[in-house]
Amino acid sequence: MKAEFDLVDIKGGNIGSVKRCLERLEVKFNEVGADNPPDGSRPLIVPGVGAFGAVMDSLKHGHLDTLLPTLVRAGTPYLGICVGMQVLFEGSEESKNSPGLGLIPGRVVRFQHAKVPQIGWNKISARHSEWQSGYVYFVNSYYAKPANEDCILYQSNYGDAFCAAVEKDNITAFQFHPEKSGPFGVSLIERWLTNVSK
């Protein structure tokens, strides 16, 4: 794969597993963050595990909370994983005083009808025929509720149906951990890498 990518360190916990996945795929990437911010010349990969508010506080360091939306609105492809998906929205019940990036209308809410956190494998069902359904690995107590359901790429069920992934313009994001979801999960990362390398 000739294209290079920017892996954004938002101090959210799972960057190591994503790095190892990219290295196994022999994908070239640059680690970026507050001290060496991205410039929009390469697609962005934004992983994260942790509390919504803590991650947003980390993004504010180095003004990534304003830089990332600027780059994405200008057309830079964005892949979000776990909290890297949640911060795309306007806010979260987990951290009510921490606005999100606001790139997708909607909010992040807590599971109400199942034990939290959800930890383990769960089936995701594709809403578009060109994407495959399969089983992936989740670790989450909260999930996104987009204001417009047209952007939902995958749904799953944990007590009730919930949004497991979104796709909107140049944004793709997964609530689950594709890098920890075996060959099927890795295939989703490969699909995105290929699409944005064209």
Structure report:
The chain is of the alpha/beta class and 198 residues long. It has a single domain (4-197), classed as Rossmann fold (3-Layer(aba) Sandwich), CATH 3.40.50. The protein is 25% helix and 34% strand. It has five helices and twelve strands. The chain has helices spanning 15-24, 52-60, 64-73, 83-86, 182-197, and strands spanning 4-8, 28-32, 44-48, 78-82, 91-92, 106-110, 118-126, 134-140, 142-146, 152-158, 160-168, 171-174. The strands form two sheets. Strands 2-1-3-4-12-11-10-7-8 form a nine-stranded mixed sheet. It has a three-stranded mixed sheet with strand order 5-6-9, with no helix packed on it. Strand 7 (118-126) and strand 8 (134-140) form a beta hairpin. The longest helix is centred in the C-terminal third of the chain and has 16 residues, at 182-197. The protein is globular and about 40 Å long. It starts with a strand and ends with a helix. The model has no long low-confidence stretch (mean pLDDT 94).
